Amino acid sequence: MKKYILTKINNLMMGFLLEDGKPSEIRCYEEDSILGNIFVGRVSNIVKNINAAFVDIKKGLSCYYPLEEYTGKGLKIGDLLTVQINKEPIKTKQPSVTTKISMAGEYVLVHQDDVVGVSAKIGDSSERDRLKGIVGKAIADFKANQKSKETVFGGIIRTKASGVSDEILYNETINLLCKLDEVIYKSKYATGYSCMYEKMPEYLIDIQVFSKSNSNICTSDMDLNSTKRCSSEEFVEIISDIEEVIEKCREYNISEPKLYNDPMISLRSFYGLDTIIEKALNKKVYLKSGAYLIIEPTEAMTVIDVNSGKAIKGNVKEDKVLAINEEAAREIAIQLRLRNLSGIIIVDFISMKNSHNNEILMNTLKEAVYKDSVSTIVVDMTRLGLVEMTRKRMKRPLYEIL
After folding, report:
1. Sign of CA dihedral 2, 3, 4, 10
2. Residue from 153, 172, 166, 155 nearest 127 by CA
3. pLDDT band for position 37 (50/70/90)?
4. N- or C-end of the chain: fewer Cβ atoms within 10 A?
5. 216 near 229, Cβ under 8 Å?
6. Distance (Å, rounded) from C-alpha 174 to C-alpha 343?
7. Closest alpha carbon to 378 in 393, 370, 368, 388
8. Is the pLDDT of residue 51 over 70?
9. Which of 337, 328, 329, 330 shows the shortest CA–CA distance to 376?
10. Residue 319: exposed, middle, or buried by beta-carbon count in 10 A (0-12, 13-18, 19+)?
11. Nearest-angstrom CA–CA distance, 307 and 354
12. What is the rounded CA–CA span in Å between residue 207 and residue 162?
């Protein structure tokens, strides 16, 4: 059973995804977040030695733009560019923007490219072909009536699209293409610093996704044999104590969360949210075996050390060490999501001499991070036995926000 708890802590709206009572993800909804918004920006500086430009999306806010993306004629200071925020500011780094504008839906993301790709997590070749055919047809049908005739469109089919009906996928693709084409067309005639597209508040997007997941759960054997899509996700109960959230859901015609209004005990106390946050900010994470992790974010990377603790006393067989390392690998995948750690991640597992055991450990780690919705890659194990990983940087980590 999954629960998504939405509440405010110190005036910051936060979401807690609980799976069987245990936290698996903490989401922070910052009011001033501009991730995904589209602006007509003005080039304020060009720095050739780092092959980048800086684009102002409003007075006093410059964003980093990599010049290898630029395909037009020589870019000059003062030029206008239609850009989308693809990375929020992190520590001393400014927001990052792209000119490859995209629109994301539940099942597909459409963008300014002529390629249709499918999530690598969809392994069935016949299903991949079916999905590409549907999205490809939607793009071809749309091109005949598009406003910005010179713009090419493509798409990326998301993992959740597997099993979705042709009609649902086709209609979502067409709707996203209409929105994207409208933004591109209008931006040609807009003045600098214009906001061309503002995303729905992120917490509403999450509520919408969880609500749709719930509505598509199969409830009987007849449903299993029907043509309706059946979600593989477990039912998610959404609970909030914020009346404003309920009102916003009504405004956007989204299924409302269950309103928590017990006067005796707060939602925060009932689910022990303060304890969850405290543990997610603690550098030490204890494992059931008696071992523990030390998680140390630094300016350059995040370093994770696996310590045997009370799990190992004296000489033990390497099979026991492998079991502890595998337990640590699964917990590391949870902690990366929970704390939203990203960038370069180095893990120092307990040393093992058997190369086969190291292979088993690497496979366990890859399987554990596979569930992460944020792209996470297990790169390799170095000669010193350190495991190199990367996790795509999208938003600020939990410790930095709090």
Report:
1. negative
2. 166
3. very high
4. N
5. yes
6. 34
7. 388
8. yes
9. 337
10. exposed
11. 19
12. 21
Asked if residues 257 and 204 have their Cβ atoms less than 8 Å apart, the reply is: no
Amino acid making up residue 116 = V
Residue 207's identity, in one-letter code, is I
The Cα–Cα gap between 134 and 161 comes to: 11
pLDDT of residue 227: 30
Q: What are 322-336's pLDDT values in tens digits? A: 999 999 999 999 999
DSSP conformation letters of 54-85: EEEEETTEEEEEEGGG--SS---TT-EEEEEE
How far is residue 361's CA from residue 365's CA, in Å, rounded to a whole number? 6
For the stretch 172-212, pLDDT in tens is: 999 999 999 999 999 999 999 999 999 888 899 899 888 87
Strands (E) across 170-232 are located at 194-197
Instruction: Please state the separation of Cα 16 from the chain's center in Å.
Output: 15
Burial of 123 (0-12, 13-18, 19+ CB in 10 A): exposed
- From residue 248, alpha-carbon distances to 9, 68, 210, 254 in Å are 19, 40, 16, 8
The per-residue pLDDT for 143 is 86
**pLDDT value of position 92:** 75
The alpha-helical segments, DSSP class H, found in 219-352 are 221-225, 243-251, 267-270, 273-281, 318-339
CB 310 within 8 Å of CB 324 = no
Q: Is 214 helix (H, G, I), strand (E, B) or coil?
A: helix
Beta-sheet pairing, 2-9 with 12-19: antiparallel
Q: What is the pLDDT of residues 57-77, one digit of tens each?
A: 998 899 999 999 998 888 999
Mean residue pLDDT of the chain comes to: 89
Q: With cut-offs at 50, 70 and 90, classify the pLDDT of residue 215.
A: low
Q: How many CB atoms lie within 10 A of CB 40?
A: 21
Helix-, strand-, coil-residue percentages of the chain, each rounded to 5: 35, 30, 40
Taking residue 138's Cβ as centre, other Cβ atoms within 10 Å add up to 25
Chain mean position to CA 247: 26
* 384 alpha carbon, distance to own chain's centre: 31
Q: CA 354 to CA 362: how far, in whole Å?
A: 13
Amino acid occupying residue 308: S
DSSP 49: G
Please determine, for residue 228, whether its predicted confidence score (pLDDT) is greater than 50: no
